[in-house]
Design brief:
Layout: H1 2-28, H2 34-45, H3 51-95, H4 106-126, H5 134-144, H6 149-162, H7 169-193, E1 196-203, H8 206-215, E2 222-227, E3 234-242, H9 244-257, E4 262-268
Antiparallel strand pairs: 1-3, 1-4, 2-3
Helix pairs in contact: 1-3, 1-4, 2-3, 3-5, 4-7, 5-6, 6-7
Amino acid sequence: MERIKEYLLCFVGSLFVAVGVYFFKIPNHFSTGGVSGISIILSGVFHLSSAGVIAAVLNVAMLVLGFAFCGKDCGMKTVVGSLTLSGALLILEPLVPMTAPLTDEPILELFFAVLLPAVGSAVLFNCNGSTGGTDIVAMILRRHTNLDIGSALLVSDLLITLGAFAFGIKTGLLSLLGLTMKTLIVDSVIENINLSKCFSIITANPDEISKYISGTLKRSSTVLEATGAYTRGKTHIVVSAMSRFQAIQLRKYLKSNYPDSFIIVTNSSEIIGKGFRGF
């Protein structure tokens, strides 16, 4: 069931990318990297077929890299992502012909040209998938270097984005701005998708609190013995990690039953272990 959910998310994420590319990036010749950026440049400057056809050809060629360097699971999700993106572009071209931008506000167009594909890409990356193309290069860089996914996207797409200057200084600068925004948005969305709450609860009632966490919230916890630095009294620290919704429940429980507890809550977007993510 979890596998089906991931493939559905790959499909939905790719549709977000397709809508942003077709309705906002292609009409404005914005190139923020990726296969879509290459296709926009080639179709606009050299008049080589349609952007959708070029994207489809390039995506098929890049799938080999996905399987070779990112594994079968990532490769199959990339197949779903790239075919969905290319198919959506090919369907939209005759269905909703775009001969000009939707508005005469380039900044507004750039915002949606960046936001929709960035959100879609973040969903795909979080599922260990991509839309193919230079996204695969970014995933390889993330796996084999210390770069986060946003920085890896910046490195893999920078040269392609510079190609947008072929459409003029204004378009080139807007594309460069769009690429910078894209890298920041992708990292931000991924962090928010995986955001969890980590609790450190200093209390004299560790057994009751641990029982609530395991019995009601279905989460594990760790109890540590501690000594107060000022009072030198013995106390306990209950440590636990959980989702944002579970964190709200725990805070309400502590407020109602143990208001004297001292609670430290931190955010984490990368928790590795049972019940969370693997290595």
